[in-house]
What does this fold into?
Amino acid sequence: MNELKLGAVESRFADLIWQNEPITSTELVKLALTELTWKKSTTYTVLKRLCERGLFQNKDGTVTSLLSREEFYARQSEQFVEETFSGSLPAFLAAFTARKKLSEMEIAQLQSMIDDMRG
It folds into this structure.
């Protein structure tokens, strides 16, 4: 499932699309030149790669997302927990909180989420 892993530059490019969609491919080239100093060929190469991964589509010269930013990062998080902690959210939280203590507000938010799931 490497399609859910983006490098730093791919992430910045994906964010440009999510923030500006729908966007014409011509406008995306201009935006990538301004924001990332990319040439047209680089923009189209990376766009094609992200389209092949199922994140975006370039249909009739208009680029739109197939996955929202939120959905993409939710799936990426699920994949991380699955691969790193055998899918165990409690194991992930135990590892996370071993080095970073949760604030009272964070604990209350987590408890609220748990209560909502039970209800």
In short: The first helix runs from residue 8 to 20. Residues 104 and 110 are 10 Å apart (CA to CA). The chain has a mean pLDDT of 94.
